[in-house]
Amino acid sequence: MTVRTVRGKTRTSLAIALSCVLLTVGCSQNGADDVDSALSQEQALNRTVEVLGRSLSVLPEGARLDVDDPNFPQSSLPTGGFAPCYTSNTIVDGPHRFSASYWVVFGGVGRDDLDLLLSTWAEWGWTVEDDSNDGGNSATARTPDQYVVDALLSTDGGLSLGGSSPCFAIEAGHTPPRAVAPLVIEQR
What is the CATH number for 74? Predict the structure, then answer.
């Protein structure tokens, strides 16, 4: 997988929705009681990007993950980073997780790409929850090592993917880590 940086733009409601899904899944599934004490912030970032890159690898040739969608330049996604695992927005100390969100750019048809991801994730032994049928628009996969990939279909048929790490410990009194996810992930 190749990672390169491009400029970000403004956020949209879908971008906010995907970020909220990641926060909800990350916080509800990986709260303070589920801290991976062996995981470092660097490992969390790298493995999250790796899990997203592996998912990207099964999509049509030329697809990439990008915070910007060239068809909708006003729809940039947040650049990702570290955040507390707690559901309270007033707590900044304690366990953190890494998350990042991307548009699938130059893939196939969003629904077809999602179906391909769902079947592939299941083949890989990941736990899959498909809420994209019967009017739904999302699906979630969890790796055996507890990384999460969320897929969200937009109303125009586009697909976005987000990934998040398990929670990891931050030493008491330390400033939460600062890092930014790559803005583009390309197929190898």
Answer: 3.30.2030.30
The answer to whether residue 32 is domain-embedded is no
Q: What is the DSSP string of 98-120?
A: EEEEEEEES-S-HHHHHHHHHHH
Euclidean distance between CA atoms 153 and 144, whole angstroms: 24
What's the chain's length in residues? Answer: 188
Q: What is the pLDDT of residues 87-111, one digit of tens each?
A: 766 666 788 899 999 999 998 899 9
Q: How much is the pTM?
A: 0.79
Q: How far apart are CA 36 and CA 47, in angstroms?
A: 13
Domain count, the chain: 1
Give the residue from 33, 45, 38, 139 showing the smallest Cα distance to 83: 45
Q: Is residue 117 a part of any domain in this protein? A: yes
Q: Are 41 and 177 in contact (CB under 8 A)?
A: yes
Range of the domain at 160: 41-186
Residue 100 counted as domain residue: yes
DSSP state letter for 78: P
